[in-house]
Amino acid sequence: MKKCYINGIGCISAQKTFEGGFLDEVEVNTTDVIFSAKNPDYKAFISPGAIRRMAKGVKMGIAASQYALKEANVEIPDAIITGTGMGCLQDSEKFLKAIIDNKEQFLTPTSFIQSTHNTVGAQIALNLQCKGYNFTYVNGAISLESALVDALLQIETREAGTILAGGVDETSGHTLSLYELIGLIKKKDQGPIDVLNPKTPGAVFSEGAGFFVIENQKKSTTYATLEAVGTQNTLQESEVISFIENFLNTNNLKPQDIDAVVLGNNGDVAFDGYYNEAETLFSNTPQVYYKHLCGEYNTATSFGLWTALHILKKQEIPQILQKNQVTKHPINRVLLYNHYRGKDHSLTLLNHADL
Fold first, then answer.
1. d(C-alpha 144, C-alpha 138), whole Å
2. pLDDT-derived band at 47, boundaries 50, 70, 90
3. Range among 34-48, 110-124, 287-301 rated most confident
4. What is the C-alpha separation between 168 and 206, in angstroms, rounded?
5. Same fold, 5-215 and 224-352
6. Closest by alpha carbon to 209, among 274, 306, 275, 79?
7. How far is CA 237 from CA 214, 275, 324, in A?
8. What SS3 state is found at 118?
9. I need a surface site. Which of 22, 185, 289, 321 has the fewest CB within 10 A?
10. Residue limits of the Beta-ketoacyl synthase-like N-terminal domain (predicted)?
11. What is the pLDDT of residue 55?
12. Rounded to 10 degrees, what is the CA torsion of 206, 82, 220, 301?
């Protein structure tokens, strides 16, 4: 396949990840069960009049994407590919509430128009005046990975040379209350929460946006190459090892060829056993975890990908991310493994740009 270089990244999360630096300032929260994203100064990217009308997910998407483009020295990409699990939840709730409150009469279309899942990609394109390929994937916890697969195919088939791809999800009050009711979110009185040694079901939920400029040429800003992405809808815990081994075999690799593995542990005692299986395959490999910093959401792997790219570029794993005490240098290949509640399993392979 043709080389796909990741030349710019922008990330908004529950940590201070937006304006450069690699987790220079970290907040470890072991008591709250819902994290809010740290907002940058949106006025630097969006006009004040437009900010008032935009949901948080749209603002995060525009800011993160523009930061990534600026870092890669790109003005207008050839394509924009977005992944989102739940879309613009805040406007969806506004519209549904208006239906109930007004007894299905005298409804204004604004909230409905802005509630659709492709709103983020559309607003990014409008802001950039980009008239190229624009597609949104809504595939649960593999929404971002679906966008990355599309980007790889676009580069391979020469449909595009510069692609802006990313994932974004926002939180909203009513939806979170439903998640709490059905046990997807941990109960508030269960702290302190230890992601690595879970004792209770559910996860800590959050929101965020991560965008990546993927190009067919290496630049001075290049972080790494995106080599391959693999997904599978459902797996038994006993099938995790074969799933990973088959993916590595397809890419002519063995487990010992991986220099760091990034795992998506979220502290849910009912489902983190999948990651325990993966750990046995990489017992002699540095293991990284990250959701204790960013929380869980459908496109949380954007934070994981942001983390992996910095590890490859800086050749270091901050202690706050270390799941074991194994070290390895140089770090040339990083594998990300994620799933959500036993479904939507994904593997993402990154290589050092000089390989």
1. 9
2. confident
3. 287-301
4. 11
5. yes
6. 306
7. 33, 9, 21
8. coil
9. 22
10. 46-218
11. 86
12. 30
What one-character-per-residue DSSP string does 140-168 give? GGGHHHHHHHHHHHHHHTTS-SEEEEEEE
Q: Which amino acid is at 5?
A: Y
pTM: 0.95
**Tokens 């599978």 appear where?**
232
- Sequence letter at residue 343: K
Query: How far is Cα 345 from Cα 142, in angstroms, rounded to an integer?
Result: 7
Could you tell me which residues come within 8 angstroms of residue 230 by beta carbon, excluding any fewer than 6 positions away? 247, 250, 346, 347
d(CA 31, CA 40): 24
The CATH number of 5-215 is: 3.40.47.10
CB 143 within 8 A of CB 85: yes
Give 306's contacts (C-beta < 8 A, 6+ positions apart).
9, 11, 13, 17, 210
CATH 3.40.50.10580 for the 224-352 domain, yes or no: no
Q: Which pLDDT does position 30 carry in this prediction?
A: 93
Helix (H) or strand (E) holding 333: strand 333-340
Pick from 168, 171, 77: which is nearest to 125 by CA? 77
Distance CA 230, CA 212 (A): 18
**For the chain, what are the domain ranges?**
5-215, 224-352
Those residues whose C-beta lies under 8 Å from the C-beta of residue 181, and which sit 6 or more positions away, are none
Residue type, 221: T
Q: Which residue has the tokens 């819902």?
A: 34
- Pairwise CA distance, residues 349 & 152, whole Å: 12
Give the number of other Cβ atoms within 10 Å of residue 343's Cβ: 14
**Which one-letter amino acid corresponds to residue 317?**
I
